[in-house]
Write a structure and sequence with these properties.
Blueprint: E1 3-6, H1 29-38, E2 42-50, E3 53-65, E4 68-73, E5 86-87, H2 89-105, E6 110-115, E7 128-139, H3 143-149, H4 152-163, E8 167-171, H5 176-190, H6 199-208, E9 213-220, E10 223-232, E11 236-244, H7 253-267, E12 272-274, H8 281-288, E13 293-303, H9 306-313, H10 315-331
Parallel strand pairs: 4-6, 11-12
Antiparallel strand pairs: 1-2, 2-3, 3-4, 3-5, 6-13, 7-12, 7-13, 8-9, 9-10, 10-11
Helix pairs in contact: 1-6, 4-7
Length: 332
Amino acid sequence: MLNARLIDNYDTGALDTAFSTNALIFHSLKWIRLLHSTQPPDLLLIGLYLDNRLVGLAPMFTRNYWIFKVAASPFIVDNTPYMGIAIDDIYLSDALSALDSYLTKKNYAFIRLIFQKDLSSITLPKGYALVNKHTHVLTLSTIDNIWNALEGRCRTAIRKAQKSGISVSVVTDGLFIDTYYDMCKRLYGAQRMSVPNTISFYHNLLTNFSNNILMLKAEMNNQCIGGAIILLTHERAYYLNGVSLHEYNKYCPNNLIQWTAIQIALERGCAFYDFVGSDIERLANFKKSYGGNLETYTCLEKSTSTITSVARARYTDFKMMMGNLKAYLDRS
C-alpha cells in the first residue's frame, strides 16, 4: 500500500530522480519553485511512498475560497497544462487513492488533477469525475513532410503573413516581456478577464528556463503585433501562450508564429509539438490545420458536496463577473 505525506524539504535534487517514466518538466523542482514564487496559491508538495521509499510526487497548489479549500495540480493551466502525479503506471491507481485520502482528511472541498495521458482505463477513487480533454500533437519528422501535411488554408495563411511583410524572430531580451504582457492585458481585457499569469512569471520563466524557453515576436512595419511562448524539452515542445493584436489578425501573424516555432522545435531536437488544448472549437480548427493528431488527456475532478459542485459549474460566470467589476473600477 502506498501512503501520501508532505515532503518537508523540497530543495533537494534527490526528488528529481526518485520517479522516472511519467515525470514531466512540469514536475521538476525548478518548475515547481517557479510557480510557487510567482502565483498566489500555496504549495503542498506531497510524496507517495512505498515502504518509506519515495516512488512518486504530487505537487498540489491550494487556495481558500471563503469556506472552501481547493487543491489543484496544476492550479493555473495557462502556464502549466499538465501536472498531476508523477509515478510509474503500476502504482498510479494506488497513488490516486493515497492522495485522495490525504486531501480528504485535510478537508479539501474541491480537487482537480490534469494528466498528460489518457487515464480512462484507471480505477479511480470514489467521487472522482473523469473528463476527457483533447489536444493536437504534431509529429516532427522532416520540414518537407511537416509542410506537406499542413492543410491548404494553413499554408495560404503562412504565405499571406510573409507577403504582408510580417517577420518573426526569437527574443532573448527580457525587455520584450513588458510589451508581451501589455498585449496579454489587451487580449484578456477585451474578454473582461484578467491575465492569469503575473508579469513576474514571464520574467522568471525567461531567466530560469533560458535553455528551454522559446519566446517569439512578430513584427509588421517595425511594430510588435504578436508573440508566443513555447517550452522545449528533449522530447516535446509545448505551446504555452500566445497573443496578437486583434487589428492585425487579418494578416495571419499567428500562423507564421506557429510555423516558425515548429521549425525551431524540430531544429532543437523535439519529437513532438503539442498545441496544448483543442476543446474550444475556434482554437481547435486553427491547431488542426497544422496536421497533427488529436490526442486525449485526462482531467480528474472531485467535489465533496452539492455546494462545491454548483460553485465549480458557475466558476466561469464568476470570473466574468469579476472581470466586469474590474473593468468598471478601472473606468471610474
